[in-house]
Amino acid sequence: MPLAATEAAAGLLRLRATEGFRAPATRVADLPCPPAVPLLGNALQLPAGTVHACLEQWAREYGPMYRFRAGSQSIVVLTDPVLIGEILRHRPEGFMRGARLTAVIDEIGLAGLFTAEGDRWRRHRKLVMRALTPEAVRHFFPIIRTVTQRLLERWRALAATGAPVEVSRDLKRYAIDVTTWLSMGVDVDTLNHDDNPLQGDVELLFETLGRRFLKPFPYWRWIRLPADRRADEAVARLNATIDDLIARARARMAADPALAARPSNILEALIAARDEPGSEFDDDDVRGNVGTMLFAGEDTAANAMAWLLMLLAGAPHEAAQAAREVDAVLAGDDQIGAFADLAGLEYVEACAVESMRLRPIAPQNGATARQPADLAGLRIDPGQTLIMLTRPTGLDVARFPDPLVFRPERWLGEAAESADDTRRTLFPFGGGPRYCPGRYLAMVEIKMVIAMVLGNFRIAPDPAARVEEHFTFTMGPSSLPLRFTAR
Fold it and tell me: Which one, of 176, 96, 124, 119, lies nearest residue 287 by Cα?
């Protein structure tokens, strides 16, 4: 039988890579790899919180395609952007989300859109996307503006004391307040209620995911360490919060039956779908998607804003240029007054894209093969786990001269002609059919907060602070105290 026919019968996927790139081996077992120890593999070299940095360092040592061992399992690591794009494009048929991460998330009880596959994923995504379209975000602009005003008032009060502002923590509260109000119709206002455990519990569960992800053995299924017991308590509190949110939504829908036909947010849409005769959704689907929204809303946009503020604080020339653009748009107001005004923040958006190049919120993505594939010469079998690193492309001197320099102009003017292609190689919000459905909302939040900050404050780094990258589910600063001075 001809080779092509044999491959077709086996369902072999042949994926292209950057021109001239070939895998260093045809078998996973023959890929270059760091030294490992019996049973544990490379697990002891992958400390929680800095896994991404270790994998990036190995890419510099072993090349753009290598493997490492988590226990007895070999995991393939890739950095070639074209090959990564091909893998993302072939989800969910050819590849599924990383099986290891999916299992850890499902065990915590957050099974929803993020971990769903196949037809189940398509059903869930339709419901979620309905509330995150540009038109829907425009409709909820007054809510985003209200929460931004609360953040402004909080930072004004803190700036008046002369103490540094812990930006990262407050931005996570901001993001979870926006997401909860928009997607569930409930104003939790964690910004003004420090005693609300919601943001802290979400953060603790992120830490749990990051700690368990590459453990060689799932010890927590048999032994609960103190950290696991704290995670159990956080899950219990989070489930109680989610049940309360669902109960409030059901009460609104009972008082206004028209909401079943025309839900005003994601939660109401999920409940309406769950209650339809013959529905394929159940209570666990509703609960899991609410948890997924809390997680996605707390982390992605918040970390993107934190990194951008850190870079602007250390780049006074670029911060001043962004502030001039903001002043022209605000026209004397203390924050964006109308949704249409966001379109005038082109330089701010370029700053955001440049920040994501230097400090990607998702420096790695996982995937598991669902069918045999040829990755630029490397043959892999179904079940093979892959980790795709995105930052090496962003720091490639061939693509970005002076790659360590914060230079928003890369994304403006003549340089913008190739910006779309370049953005697709950085994958700041994933790629392919499973790109992040909240990316548009995230950019709106970024522009709102950055405009508010630059329109009202001058920011500078705290000389006493040491800001480090910390990776759990996404990558954010370990802490980020900045000095705010009223303009």
Answer: 124
